[in-house]
């Protein structure tokens, strides 16, 4: 009896988006992401090769994750600190731009020091300003 009660309770609360209408919605989002991936692969692979495939997959997963977040928030709202999430996204974009501009085949000690300094500063910034204060969640 205990196993039955915990199983019904667990499946009833944890799989909140798996009813008929919501399952179809999330399946359509997955199909949309797959179509976007195929279209971008068709466009980007002839131009950029394996890098084009990587970008196509990255962009299709970005669409998939964003759609899942938006529709999941409509179905079951969660208290997400949007300002901290956007700040982390901004930090990621800045690091991505720096890594693209600092990408070179020549390995110098100055370049290694600059990259390590950027990573250390970013980790420190994220640690100081972005992480949720877990003690305040009690």
Observed structural traits:
138 residues, mainly alpha, 2 domains, flat
Question: Explain this structure to me?
Answer:
With 138 residues, this protein is mainly α. The protein has two domains: 1-78, no CATH class; 81-138. It has five helices and no strands. Helix 2 (20-48) packs antiparallel against helix 3 and helix 4 (82-101) runs antiparallel to helix 5 (109-129). The model is unreliable at 1-14 (pLDDT under 50).
Set out the fold topology:
Elements: H1 2-14, H2 20-48, H3 50-75, H4 82-101, H5 109-129
Number of strands: 0
Task: Report the average pLDDT across residues.
Answer: 76
What spatial form do the alpha-carbon principal axes imply? flat
Largest sheet: none
Strand percentage, roughly?
under 5%
Percentage of residues in helical conformation: over 70%
Order of secondary-structure elements: HHHHH
Distance between the termini: 32 Å
Q: Provide the domain count.
A: 2
- State Rg: 21 Å
Ranges with pLDDT <50 over ≥5 residues? 1-14
Estimated structural class:
mainly alpha
Count, helices? 5
Q: Quick gist of this model?
A:
The chain has 138 residues and is an all-alpha fold.
